[in-house]
Design a protein that fits this description.
The chain is rod-shaped. The chain has one domain. The protein contains two helices and no strands. The chain is 58% helix and 0% strand. The protein is mainly alpha-helical and 72 residues long.
Length: 72
């Protein structure tokens, strides 16, 4: 057994790399677990923009109701 195989045997099952023939993405199809973080980041960005625009709209509405935009 080579040193690399001995080290691979010492790793927990979650840290072991599958051989290339067993790689789930070897057929070119994306793996759902790899797409998850992308959707999470896009969702967080959309939520951040929504909060930002809503708070700006509320601020403008308060300023308008306080008369800050009236020229009289």
């Amino acid at each position: 057994m080579s040193d690399a195989e001995k080290q691979a045997d010492d790793l927990p099952a979650a840290d072991r790399q599958p051989p290339p023939e067993q790689d789930p993405a070897a057929d070119g199809q994306p793996v759902a677990g790899r797409r998850g973080p992308v959707w999470l980041v896009l969702g967080l960005a959309a939520a951040t923009l929504l909060v930002c625009f809503c708070s700006a709209a509320v601020g403008l509405a308060i300023a308008w109701s306080a008369g800050l935009f009236h020229t009289n």
